[in-house]
Write a structure and sequence with these properties.
This is Sigma-70, region 4. There is one protein chain. The chain is mainly alpha-helical. The protein folds into two domains: about 1-35, no CATH class; about 55-95, no CATH class. It has seven helices and no strands. The radius of gyration is 24 Å and the shape is elongated. The N and C termini lie far apart (about 70 Å). The mean pLDDT is about 75.
């Protein structure tokens, strides 16, 4: 913060930074008020946190089910739609488990 104070032409930034750091410190303490832990949107309305990581959305059993269904002939696109993920995520799960269908000889 000292660097900001010496090199900034906008002293109000220092006040904002101190406030922000104070709020972070308060929010990370053990007795943080509930309102500091709530994620809000642009209109300051509480919103549900999105689970973006695949590991947060699918259990190990789901992954094994996807592999099993794929090996039994279900298309990647169908599996993706069923679990609400993209086909790339299905391919990543299949690669993780080393799943590949045997190639048919023509």
């Amino acid at each position: 913060m000292e660097v900001l104070r010496y090199y900034s032409n906008q002293p109000d930034l220092l006040v904002n930074m101190r406030y922000t750091l104070g709020m972070i410190e308060l929010a990370t303490s053990d007795n943080a008020p509930r309102y500091l832990l709530t994620v809000t949107d642009a209109k300051n309305q509480p919103r549900k946190r999105a689970e973006h990581r695949l590991v947060d959305r699918l259990s190990k059993e789901d992954e094994l089910f996807i592999v099993s269904e794929y090996l039994n002939g279900t298309a990647q696109k169908v599996l993706a739609e069923k679990f609400g993920i993209v086909a790339r995520s299905v391919r990543r799960i299949l690669a993780k488990h080393g799943a590949a269908r045997p190639r048919s000889s023509r």
